[in-house]
From TrEMBL:
<comment type="function">
    <text>May play a role in DNA repair. It seems to be involved in an RecBC-independent recombinational process of DNA repair. It may act with RecF and RecO.</text>
</comment>
<dbReference type="GO" id="GO:0008270">
    <property type="term" value="F:zinc ion binding"/>
</dbReference>
<dbReference type="InterPro" id="IPR000093">
    <property type="entry name" value="DNA_Rcmb_RecR"/>
</dbReference>
<feature type="domain" description="Toprim">
    <location>
        <begin position="82"/>
        <end position="185"/>
    </location>
</feature>
<dbReference type="Pfam" id="PF13662">
    <property type="entry name" value="Toprim_4"/>
</dbReference>
<dbReference type="Pfam" id="PF21175">
    <property type="entry name" value="RecR_C"/>
</dbReference>
<dbReference type="GO" id="GO:0006310">
    <property type="term" value="P:DNA recombination"/>
</dbReference>
<dbReference type="InterPro" id="IPR006171">
    <property type="entry name" value="TOPRIM_dom"/>
</dbReference>
<keyword id="KW-0233">DNA recombination</keyword>
<dbReference type="GO" id="GO:0006281">
    <property type="term" value="P:DNA repair"/>
</dbReference>
<comment type="similarity">
    <text>Belongs to the RecR family.</text>
</comment>
<dbReference type="InterPro" id="IPR023627">
    <property type="entry name" value="Rcmb_RecR"/>
</dbReference>
<dbReference type="Pfam" id="PF21176">
    <property type="entry name" value="RecR_HhH"/>
</dbReference>
<dbReference type="GO" id="GO:0003677">
    <property type="term" value="F:DNA binding"/>
</dbReference>
<protein>
    <recommendedName>
        <fullName>Recombination protein RecR</fullName>
    </recommendedName>
</protein>
<keyword id="KW-0479">Metal-binding</keyword>
<keyword id="KW-0863">Zinc-finger</keyword>
Length: 206
């Protein structure tokens, strides 16, 4: 396979990208300078060296001098340890953080569970979450888990799964499981929500 077709195949694996868009990306790259293409290739390569995944919340973060395996939020002693907000993807947590309406800790599931999924545990970081909840309950007084999942069919399916999955352990340790207030909007997606909407959804959680 030549480089054009190989790249088209690679771009097609990006979320929401079809064959025509993938082809447009490749021809765009061909029209750019060598310097641009080198910069792009270099930065893709650097991801491995410069970005790490947090061992606690599983979000991606830039490696720093401290060489900690935890991100700045998880290391921050001012953040409320009694509250854990669960999101599907990194873009969701970024938007919640931007709203300045939340000062607890996070957990990134890394996806959603599709309807009728036979192996839900393989779709999200469920076991990692379960272990973290147990650890936090014992070590740092976890009192509330906020499910901040998108109000889409998949998001709600994931929410239902997590409520059952975490039901026993949360009852054992007296942890409240809440979800974002739905307000007026249906189909709320954190990625596209403004700070005001997120603030209200957090305030009206239950
Ligand atoms: Zn973290």
């Amino acid at each position: 396979m030549d480089s054009i077709n190989k790249l088209i195949e690679l771009f097609r694996q990006f979320p929401g990208i079809g064959p025509r868009q993938a082809k447009r990306f490749v021809y765009f790259l061909l029209s750019q300078t060598n310097a641009y293409r080198d910069l792009l290739a270099e930065n893709i390569k650097n991801l491995k060296e410069t970005i790490d995944i947090c061992k606690s919340c599983y979000r991606y973060f830039p490696k720093d001098k401290i060489k900690s395996d935890k991100c700045v939020i998880c290391r921050d002693p001012r953040r409320d340890d009694s509250c854990l907000l669960i999101v599907s993807r990194d873009v969701d947590y970024e938007n919640v953080e931007k709203s300045h309406a939340y000062d607890g800790k996070y957990f990134v599931l890394g996806g959603n569970i599709p309807i009728l999924e036979k192996d839900p545990l393989s779709k999200i970081r469920a076991k990692e979450l379960f272990n973290l909840v147990g650890h936090r309950a014992k070590e740092s007084g976890l009192k509330e888990i906020i499910l901040a999942l998108n109000l889409t069919v998949e998001g709600e399916n994931t929410e239902d799964f997590l409520k059952k999955y975490l039901g026993e352990i949360s009852a054992e340790y007296g942890i409240k499981i809440s979800e974002l207030g739905r307000g007026l909007s249906t189909g709320l997606e954190l990625e596209y929500s403004d700070s005001e909407t997120i603030k209200n959804a957090l305030k009206n959680r239950g």
